[in-house]
Amino acid sequence: MQAWQVHENGEPSEVMRLADVAQPVPGEGQVLLKVRAANINFPDVLMCRGHYQVRPPLPFTPGVEICGETEDGRRVIANPALPHGGFAEYAVADAAALLSAPDSLDDAEAAALHIGYQTGWFGLHRRAHLEAGETLLVHAAAGGVGSAAVQLGKAAGATVIGVVGGAEKAAVARELGCDVVVDRRSQDVVSAVKEATGGRGADVIYDPVGGEAYTQSTKVVAFEGRIVVVGFAGGTIPSPGLNHALVKNYAILGLHWGLYNTKNPKLVQHCHEQLTELAARGAIKPLISERVPLAGAADAVQRLGDGVTTGRIAVVPTGAQA
Predict the structure, then answer these.
(1) Which strand (E) or helix (H) includes residue 67?
(2) 50 close to 239: Cβ distance less than 8 angstroms
(3) What pLDDT shows up at residue 14?
(4) What Cα–Cα distance (Å) separates residue 2 from each residue in 22, 199, 296, 301, 319?
(5) How confident is the model at residue 319 (pLDDT cuts 50, 70, 90)?
(6) pTM over 0.85
(7) Which helix (H) or strand (E) holds 43?
(8) Is 307 helix (H, G, I), strand (E, B) or coil?
(9) How much of the chain, in percent, has pLDDT values that exceed 70?
(10) Which of 305, 310, 303, 258 is nearest to 46 (CA)?
(11) Average pLDDT of 254-274?
(12) Integer angstrom CA distances of residue 263 from 53, 79, 128, 266
């Protein structure tokens, strides 16, 4: 079969190589899956660079989220068991963690329903307890993680402010349903958010960026607001001033979604049921900006790492239907 492999760490476009390799052999409790579509996530970029908390042995195949097909023909959503990731024609995954792919979504959309939407659901509902009528601010609102949070926020009845970088991404954020869109390249984020909220600020802030975005969050978080930290795509990990959190009376909430797979897997299944229901009634639908063939995976991963993509890019192996 064909699979992308990383033999050394570096930029994805330089270290990912497409090769003919043997099909992976499932271990105990694992299943072999034909990859119907693989979604590209920021952890794929970080793993290529050697900067992710999980470091699979070299060589490895990236791709942490797929819609696959079991040997008996079932469509499932899975996180492949590394080093046999999803940017390949076949992958392996833990049988106990397979989730049914919703009938309302095609393969590429189903592949993108998992990590970003689970992270959004856990962040907004489990950690921040977002309520209808509250204001949600989402950084990088046009990206894969941000777009999921925007849709989930709207589905929960929140007013959503999306922060983006550039006119193209601003247009995408509006299409996603943001009530207010702030272009950080042409607007002052803090002033714009304060103006949009009448000076009150946002009740919940969803931050997959870190760095300057986090600093902005602390300036526009409302009384008893919650800042949910889900990642550092901007490359800089902030150091929170706890005295500031004290005097402004806000909470800083961390979210590492992957922990729930071992700490409380029943919650992951419950979340998937909620997401499936939302997808069935059209309240959420993963934004697939591109579908690329397997041969285009390295370039697509690089573009995600460079911050020039919107929504999700799905890798569709030859012969798969997306």
Answers:
(1) strand 66-69
(2) no
(3) 97
(4) 8, 55, 13, 17, 12
(5) low
(6) yes
(7) helix 42-49
(8) coil
(9) 99
(10) 305
(11) 95
(12) 17, 16, 19, 9
